[in-house]
Amino acid sequence: MDSGSGLDPDNGNKGKGSGNGERKFGAFLKRVEPFLPKKDLNPRDLRSWAKKTGFVSDYSGETSTSTRTKFGESSEFDLPNGRHQIGQGSSHKTDIDPILGRSRPKRGSDIEHVTGSNSGSKAGPGEEERGTNRDEDRNSAETLSETENEGGKINRDLENGFYYPGGGEAEDGEWPKPIALKFGLRDNPGFVPLIYYGLQHYLSLAGSLVFIPLVIVPAMDGSDKDTAAVISTMLLLTGITTILHCYFGTRLPLVQGSSFVYLAPALVVINSEEFRNLTEHKFRDIMRELQGAIIVGSLFQCILGFSGLMSLLLRFINPVVVAPTVAAVGLAFFSYGFPQAGTCVEISIPVILLLLVFTLYLRGVSLFGHRLFRIYAVPLSALIIWTYAFFLTVGGAYDYRGCNADIPSSNILISECKKHAYTMKHCRTDASNAWKTAPWVRIPFPFQWGFPSFHMRTSIIMIFVSLVASVDSVGTYHSASMLVNAKRPTRGIVSRGVALEGFCSLLAGIWGSGTGSTTLTENIHTINITKVASRRALVIGAMFLIVLSFVGKLGAILASIPQALAASVLCFIWALTVALGLSNLRYTHTASFRNITIVGVSLFLGLSIPAYFQQYQPLSTLILPSYYLPFGAASSGPFQTGIEQLDFAMNAVLSLNMVVTFLLAFVLDNTVPGSKEERGVYVWSRAEDMEMDPEMQADYSLPRKVAQFFGCRCCK
């Protein structure tokens, strides 16, 4: 520290006026950069510095005793140990962390009033008081040493902004503590471990990456070859978009891919009246319609991010909005999940039971130093039951006299065989001919299904969906940053991530994957169970996905998964999506009547209002299968203005559970009075914090040339 500072410990030794407390303060400043002028110490400057370092805060708008008094009158820091003493004269009001905006657990009163003695004085009352201070300091050190959590040492926790004395789980309304990671955001464990951990990350997300084509392609009357091609396309896009996000997005270790957010609107378009009666080229026509809508929605998302509008919108997006919205994404498929899986209960029930056993009962079992059952629950369960289904098929469990599984159900003339056609199609492992028809090498290319079709009605649907996808990603960004022990990103970084997601969805629309691309919510679960948050691992794994997408036979193998098996796994994944969405409420006061009412009303009406639109015209039940009925309201809903394009769009939007839930939660959370602490308002870092923090710059900054091109708005 410069000698001009009035608190230099060397200066303090020159005169008799310097007390013990001043020398301690100087020692402390050796380690902490002060927010003080060099001369003419102003107590207000000290107070501002104390607030920024987390010692004192009046964030809630209430000024406690310790923040109202001047330094030297009512407080003194125990400086050699970098901690403040607990005393009797301070306020008992809740102390709010200035960085997180969350209440810190009470450790007693704020700061003790101690009058320092002259440095040259002999043993006396002052010396006894200093002895008392040393005893209290030892007790304070012992208390804090017991509260180190498993995520790291106290200093690291304080730097990350979420250290909790007392250990254990975070209490209601507090931020959760970081987990103990094997490898952090910028760690490089070596090339071979990077390959292993990279593939591990994607294998744990296999259900989300692979099973969406098994839902939408059969609904579009696509062939098994088409299913294999769409799977390969999704693998390619997942690899490309994940690499882009790791370098140019938020730079958090998050996999980008086809999201369930886009699945429900895709099914709405697929089951619209216009496409129900198509016989020729139905798959290509619907895919081109989806491509055009996704491209328009992605452009809206790009504008939202790059223009900075997302930074303004972030002020209104908080856990009470994110939680029910993400939960509604999973709940939207409750009428599709088990009705599809139930066609083969001898397959579906064992899959669900095995998933529950692996993820819950065997989650603590370690083999070869790895918790394989917890990490690979989905691929292990699917592989075991797929093998079991193969033996059922070979053993003749699905053989019916005079019936052939290769004959389409529409061409079956024997009534007895018609009864079993559905079972054979959904249960047999040899029902797909993808292996015979798919080439060994196939490179997905842009506009492979033809040039996209653009219509206002479907474009409006995807604009609303892209907004919901952005809200979903906001919650994932915040949770992921806390999970990997990084500081929260700035609003500009979040906007940058949303803008890049829009660009990734644009690529998905150009290549024709059937759904947009966004950050997978399941990333949070994957990082939590693998304890690996290395960007390099994700990039290496993404490169492998790109290479594997060129192997046509791999897509054919995945396309051969029985539909009942896929639906059973999706039941578990959708349930996990609901749980991950509701877990955002841990940042709020979950016991608050305000919060539980908003979440409850949003979820209930978010399911009930779309049900009204879905059941408005009973004739749909005679045309569509029961599991597609919730997605057939666009052509026959109650919203009728005479403008066909607008009627279609509004009936479709209001039949989507996640859109209705989001709109209700958004309005209620931002109009019903409630404190920031009660609402669990997201606290993002400031651009100024990033400029002064090299660690944060290393975590989030773009490559230098790219940063210069985009400018500071998208970089910080």
Helix content: 55-70%
Low-confidence stretches: 1-22, 34-39, 48-130, 140-175
Termini separation (Å)?
Answer: 30 Å
Q: Rough shape?
A: globular
Give the neighbour order of strands across the main sheet: 1-2
Radius of gyration over all CA atoms, rounded: 30 Å
Care to count the β-strands? Answer: 6
Question: What do you see in this structure?
Answer:
It is a multi-pass membrane protein. It comes from Eutrema salsugineum. Residues 38-48, 125-140, 150-159 have a biased composition (Basic and acidic residues). The chain crosses the membrane at residues 194-216, 228-248, 293-314, 320-339, 351-369, 375-398, 537-558, 564-583, 595-613, 648-668. Residues 60-69 have a biased composition (Polar residues). There is one protein chain. β3 and β4 form a beta hairpin. The chain contains 36 helices and 6 strands. Strands 1-2 form a two-stranded antiparallel sheet. Strands 3-4 form a two-stranded antiparallel sheet. With 716 residues, it is mainly alpha-helical. The protein has a domain at 191-685.
Give the tags.
mainly alpha; transmembrane helix; disordered N terminus; NCS2; 716 residues; two-stranded antiparallel sheet; 56% helix; globular; Nucleobase-ascorbate transporter 11
Provide a compact summary of the structure.
Residues 38-48, 125-140, 150-159 have a biased composition (Basic and acidic residues). The chain has 716 residues and is an all-alpha fold. The chain has a domain at 191-685.
